[in-house]
Known about the structure:
By secondary structure, this protein is of the alpha/beta class. The protein has a domain at 14-146 and 153-165 and 191-285 and 303-337: 3-Layer(aba) Sandwich (Rossmann fold), CATH 3.40.50.720. The protein has helices at residues 17-33, 52-63, 87-101, 116-129, 188-198, 201-212, 241-261, 287-300, 306-318, 341-353, 359-362, 365-375, and strands spanning 7-8, 11-12, 43-47, 69-74, 106-110, 134-139, 145-147, 154-156, 166-172, 177-183, 216-226, 266-271, 332-333. Strands 5-4-3-6-11-12-13 form a seven-stranded parallel beta sheet, with helices on both faces. A two-stranded antiparallel sheet has the order 1-2. Strands 7-8 form a two-stranded antiparallel sheet. β3, α2 (52-63) and β4 form a beta-alpha-beta unit. α5 packs across α7. It starts with 6 loop residues before the first strand and ends in a 23-residue tail after the last helix. 1,4-dihydronicotinamide adenine dinucleotide (NAI) binds next to α2, β4 and β11. Its EC number is 1.3.1.9. NAD(+) binds at residues 48-53, 75-76, 112-113, 141-142, 246, 275-277.
Amino acid sequence: MRIEPIIQGVVARTAHPFGCKQAVLEQIHYVKSAKPISHGPKRVLILGASSGFGLAARIALTFGGADADTIGVSFERGPSEKSVGSAGFYNNIFFKQQAEQAGRIAVNINGDVFSNEIKEQVIEAIETYFEGEVDLVIYSIASGMRRKPQSDEFWHSVIKPIGEPVSGATVLLENDTWIDTTLPPATEEEIDHTLKVMGGEDWENWIDTLINNDSLAQGCKTIAFSYVGPEMTHPIYLDGTLGRAKIDLHQTSHALNLKLANFDGNAYATVCKALVTKASVFIPAFTPYILALYRVMKEKGTHEECIEQMQRLFSDKLYARTPVPVDSERLLRMDDWELNPDTQTRVQEIVEQMNASNFAELGDYQGFKQAFLRLNGFGIEGVDYQADVDLSLFMPSR
Ligand code: NAI
């Protein structure tokens, strides 16, 4: 079959296997030519390894100088009679193929990160492939829900303000239309549930499990990703439900740092730049900011995608300096270029003028949409989109 992009709202319903392959290859190519990671970790566990920051971190650590072996956990869907499968499913396949060709170990574990079964499978994989220990644990999960332990019920995360309603715009990628929205404040229950899904609890569960199984190597580090953003985004992000969960994650990083001190290790919440990913396009009332930010950072030559952020994190910060550079709240800041005062002044000017009829000219809507399509393997040079793709090649029975 020929595979075309199908978008519903801000969700991609199709992905192109060979476009995903090409996107992985391009990221590998980038890290091979970038400033290399010296003194990097050799055995890395990545929770949320199939897309966005997790995939970029995996590529950077394998091909960007550290020559790391990796175990990657993700929750992805393969092709079936009804669907072509998710981009992350294909990213996993082609990452593994490339890593193994380069002589590296790359283990993919597909399943629910919050479950005990997956924790047990990972411990077993660490025994089998890493001689029982890991040097770095990356927590890069973005999820809308978490199954309650031993239950058929779920906690659902919501993206809402806290206290007051917030108005803003979202651009539907499906038909390129600007939708003005007003989001009501979250209820206490919604705040608590979002914290359960996106806060630090599961990160801590993972580190405890690894400690209890003697799976942390001496000097082991762990990181999880956060976002802070400028003041104009605080009502919907930092002061809202997601921000509440991120603050919990920051607090968890301090608790984990104490636990890891027993191993001469460290834990950091790493604050990244706002970027187009499968997860971030869901954030309502955030699009005008990101459109303006893409435009200004590209004009200034400071724009980075996930892969540039991750390569810089490891080559310039996490493994480059002792002590690791952190801010007054002990956060590792990769949003330094985003929050540059000149950049923010210009972004603010653009956002103030942006509306339903001029967003594509004032902001980098073309770049935003292109980035979204690329995440799903579309719009990538060198891929023959007219060719038939035999999806049975990727089905488990083969
Ligand atoms: P993404 O959607 O590209 O990746 C999420 C990963 O989590 C995927 O590998 C997915 O398979 C995995 N996952 C989701 N639910 C799972 C489950 N139940 N079990 C196993 N795996 C599961 O998201 P992105 O944007 O890379 O987000 C990663 C982290 O980075 C999140 O904590 C996010 O808040 C944070 N972040 C994102 C920013 C952005 O602008 N995209 C900015 C700053 C931080």
